[in-house]
């Protein structure tokens, strides 16, 4: 779900895989072992061929190794690259389409899209774990010069805000954007006080859908069960932030989202932006497997409490995209 | 000079200028040393120690330098754990400092008697209890070196009496002061030429090669002359 269709396509159609210092754990998205040639740069010999069998392992620091390797590479014909870039540009149009919808309740894609247009090139961006990671990954471009991070292998909730605080402490002259969900924020919410106490230049964007989204969709799509235990009490994060001494705004109208963000993005003081979004919009993977669609159908049949809303929202959205 | 003063001084020698955490009576000895050096080492006071560990991890990820967090004995140390696992799993170099009960009360079911050194065995690449004032220098250097070279979490825990113990106390002849150093050790070796050529050959023959990059776990040298 974190990937895009063109990146998935590239992995499915390639004949050579070059892994550069990555231990990307989602092996199911890598090519089948034995179907491609693979070169891996990896500083820890223990991690060579961890995810895919490497034909050659270059045990070294990536920067040092690439400096030595790149002069030895010859120019390729650009067919594969061009196709991937075309795919990416088509994907971007889809993201723009989803990001500019005027639906009520507002789509999470809209917040992501509007933020992506505004985050400056010297910003540091942090995110949390859950459906929020998908919105951050798809909509917020990683510009050269920026830094982006989230909890990778542990994929823990609650990291986004403390990560942002560390960034603001380490780089007091750079703007920091913290793009998190209401679930992740509530866990270490006390750190809002830390942000206020040190007057850190952090824009805390809370995408609020009153639900533990990733978990809910996993219960339905992976297990075929109706959701259970995923509701979040709708706390007023604007009031909470203001109580901690942080300025805060509330966004729920897609047509005003951009203009409301404009009113706060240039402030050098902390601001919390509570963006209320539709909880029935799932973060669809770039390519949906038949088994996943089946499980979702099963969950709906077995009495998922919000089944009508889910069906109507997704039917509406799918028809729109097909058209 | 006591153990805490030397611990803080050694960290500064390694280029540490920021530490995230929360005080407590199990770690107040070290806090006094931090207070005395507050113009040189900045203490960021958090609301929950798990945040301090996340902050140390993120600090390391963003700057390429060692992240440091500090917590008191018992519950304080326990709270660090989830954030430290984040550092472990993403290969971020972090030093965690915690406190323990007075050494002659350990193992007697006394208040906040949590064996943090046992608790941190899985998360840490280096995990030791400082036994006396004379022990702190070599352990601090080893802990920091371990975190940096193995890209993981190093943990030092100090009983409250040890935190304020003179560094001359309990010194053995095999442990002279300053027998360790902060000399940087970041290898920049290259793979064998034949492997580089083989890799280039494979990449050059490929018609359709995407590459899967990551930030890697690249490290920048600490600023020794800070």
Give a brief description.
The complex is a heterodimer of chains A (323) and B (226). Chain A is an alpha/beta fold and 323 residues long.
Structure, described:
The complex is a heterodimer of chains A (323) and B (226). Chain A starts with a helix and ends with a helix. In chain A, the strands form 2 sheets. Chain A has a 6-stranded parallel β-sheet with strand order 5-4-6-7-9-8, with helices on both faces. Chain A contains 13 helices and 9 strands. Chain A has helices spanning 5-13, 62-69, 79-99, 108-118, 131-139, 160-170, 182-187, 191-197, 213-221, 237-243, 254-262, 290-301, 307-322, and strands at 16-20, 37-41, 56-58, 124-127, 147-149, 176-181, 202-208, 247-251, 271-276. Chain B starts with a helix and ends in a 13-residue tail after the last strand. A 6-stranded parallel β-sheet of chain B has the order 2-1-3-4-6-5, sandwiched between helices. Chain B is an alpha/beta fold. Chain B has helices at 3-13, 28-36, 49-63, 75-90, 116-119, 136-150, 160-163, 193-205; strands at residues 18-21, 42-45, 67-70, 94-100, 124-129, 153-159, 211-213. Classes of the chains: A alpha/beta (323), B alpha/beta (226).
Any chance you could write out the topology, listing elements then pairs?
The complex is a heterodimer of chains A (323) and B (226).
Chain A lengths: L4 H9 L2 E5 L16 E5 L14 E3 L3 H8 L9 H21 L8 H11 L5 E4 L3 H9 L7 E3 L10 H11 L5 E6 H6 L3 H7 L4 E7 L4 H9 L15 H7 L3 E5 L2 H9 L8 E6 L13 H12 L5 H16 L1
Helix pairs in contact in A: 1-3, 3-4, 4-5, 4-11, 9-12
Chain B lengths: L2 H11 L4 E4 L6 H9 L5 E4 L3 H15 L3 E4 L4 H16 L3 E7 L15 H4 L4 E6 L6 H15 L2 E7 H4 L29 H13 L5 E3 L13
Parallel strand pairs in B: 1-2, 1-3, 3-4, 4-6, 5-6
Helix pairs in contact in B: 1-2, 1-6, 3-4
